[in-house]
Amino acid sequence: MLQARQLSVEVGGRLTLEEASFVVRAGDKVGLVGRNGAGKTSLFKVLGGEAPAYDGQVSIQGQLGFLSQDPRKLKEATDSTGLAYVLSGKGLDEAAQRVEKLRLAMEEDPSERAIHRFAKAEEAFASAGGYAAESEVRSLVAGLGLTADRIDLPIDVLSGGERRRVELARILFAGSEVLLLDEPTNHLDSDAKAWLMGFLRSYRGALLVISHDLDLLDEAITRVLHLDEGQIHEYKGTYSQYRTARAADEIRLGRLADRQQAEIKRLSTLADSMRGQTAKRARVAKSLDKRASRLTATAVSGPTSHERKYRVKFPTPPASGRIVLEVTDVAKSYGGPPVFTDVSFAVERGQRLLIMGLNGAGKTSLLRILAGQSSASAGSYRTGLNVSPGYYAQEHEGIRPGVPVLDHMRSSSPIAERELRALLGMFGLYGDIAFQDASTLSGGEKTKLALAQLVAGNHNLLLLDEPTNNLDPPSRTAIGSALADWPGTMIVVSHDAEFVTELAPDRVLLMPDGTEDAWSDDLLDLVAMA
Questions:
Q1: How far apart are the C-alpha atoms of 404 and 439, rounded to whole Å?
Q2: Model confidence band, residue 73 (pLDDT cutoffs 50, 70, 90)
Q3: What number is the average pLDDT over the span 227-250?
Q4: Within a domain: 131
Q5: Core vs surface per residue 433-472: b (16+ CB within 10 A) or e
Q6: How many CA atoms lie within 13 A of 395 on its CB side?
Q7: Number of domains composing the chain
């Protein structure tokens, strides 16, 4: 069970939650919803013990499993495999590593002492349920879409999507009584999402989840906590039922607020008409003033829509040569078998190339090479005349802890502060957020900041790695429309079928083979699976 009592949360000097109390009991499946920047992720960090509360208390009965939105939170060790890391959820990783180390030692020196040490370690591992656990882990990660050959690799050679799945697998394997899952379907294909929804439906512990995946919210939860303007409002039922109930509440609150404001105005106007007259009327005016003050103090506010609409517009890019990018026989390896080899293609001005492939096929690795963030193991690439590439990294590597939002914008463009703040506002990052530590932003706000930096940089080649992850539906729509209307050149990785449809790519590159072909809508069904 998880319980919050009079909990307040502060982010960047502003309270995103004020004196909220709620309980999530065993068997409860609760969705935490609200617009980007409302404070959902910050609340999760407090509940998960990663950040202190401004005020109030959090109590948790049982073991806690917390999936952070930030993939860099993975406690990775370069010499640890994905399998060992998942096993560490139940403390079996060190025992598994000891068995393997002693097995190798026994093969080199098959002495009686070496055999005895191996047998003793293996017996201890087996009695702790180690071999059964390994089978369980392999079944679990397969459900999440991670192939058997990838789970045996060191964590540091896995892609961002694969590391995210490994972290999720570790949390689910641990068997925690309380789960906090922040955007658990990020990087999951359609089959893995379906598997996860089935797992969560049958989960018997206390579940609190943040997600912009409406299918997950509809199928796996039974209660909604709506966070807006520092307040939490509770609704029973699925996300669709919450939307219906919330819409009715907004109509009711709007009408009540209008009636109250009309009454406050009537009382104040009547009091003003009696001032300066007889003593009796002055006393009546004073009484009316008190009634108006009491009503003002208890008046409700009209509803604040969490689907704030805004329009994003990318500026017309500077002209470039006809050939924007040429890639020749590029390969990438991380010390083991190559991730991909002999990838060659060319992109012309104004073209949109979609990179597709299963997790681990090298999509992000290829983008990082083209962005100059990583070196190719073989082959080469060159940009054309007057080409200015801009890179959006799915793990927000360019967002530096301790550096304010506005300073990130300054590092992207020399334009005036007023224009930089106008760009932030275009992405819904208003007011004092400009001076906030960028690392304290929500995942959706980090996405908006990174995209705002691309706009400020005025690039004509965009390298985009999952640009719609972490965005709420209104933000996804606004940014998707802006990119669809932009006339520059794009190379994109995305699992978002709706975004890909709007983007209307010209060509597709299938990884790891490097096969290039014309885009066809027949491939759309593979987008969410790739």
A1: 8
A2: low
A3: 85
A4: no
A5: bbebebebbbbbbbbbbbbbbbbbbbbbbbbbbbbbbbbb
A6: 17
A7: 1
Asked if 189 contacts 164 with a C-beta cutoff of 8 angstroms, the reply is: no
Residue type, 284: V
20 in helix, strand or coil?
Answer: strand
Per-residue model confidence as pLDDT tens digits over 392-413: 988 788 888 889 999 999 998 8
Report the candidate in 136, 140, 141, 166 with the shortest Cα–Cα distance to residue 154: 166
- DSSP H helices, 174-306, are 190-202, 214-220, 239-274, 279-298
Parent domain of 487:
323-527
On whether the CB atoms of residues 241 and 235 are closer than 8 A, the answer is: yes
In sequence order, what are the residues at sequence separation of 6 or more whose Cβ sits closer than 8 angstroms to the Cβ of residue 110?
A: none
Could you give the strand order of the β-sheet that contains 489-493, starting from the edge strand earlier in sequence?
389-392, 461-465, 489-493, 352-356, 507-510, 515-518
Say if residues 408 and 397 touch (Cβ distance below 8 Å): no
CA distance between the termini of the chain: 37
Residue 313 within any structural domain of the chain: no
Residue with tokens 């090298």: 362
Res. 306 pLDDT band, cuts 50 70 90: very low
- How far apart (Å, rounded) are the C-alpha atoms in residues 366 and 142? 25
Bond into 110 cis (ω within 30): no
What dihedral do alpha carbons 333, 165, 133, 31 form, nearest 10°? 170
Separation CA 401–CA 485 (nearest Å): 33
Q: Which long-range contacts (CB under 8 A, 24 or more apart) does 332-336 make?
A: 332/362, 332/365, 332/366, 332/369, 332/374, 332/376, 332/377, 333/377, 334/156, 334/157, 335/157, 336/153, 336/157
Asked if 489 and 320 touch (Cβ cutoff 8 Å), the reply is: yes
Q: Assess contact for 303 and 252: CB atoms under 8 A.
A: no
**What CA–CA distance (Å, rounded) separates 211 from 29?**
13
| pLDDT at position 186 | 82
Query: 10 lies in a domain?
Result: no
CATH number for the domain spanning 355: value is: 3.40.50.300
Q: Would residue 404 count as lying in a domain?
A: yes
CA 430 to chain centre: 20
What pLDDT, in 10s, does the model give residues 446-489?
889 999 999 899 999 999 998 988 787 788 888 888 899 999 99
Assess contact for 4 and 21: CB atoms under 8 A: yes
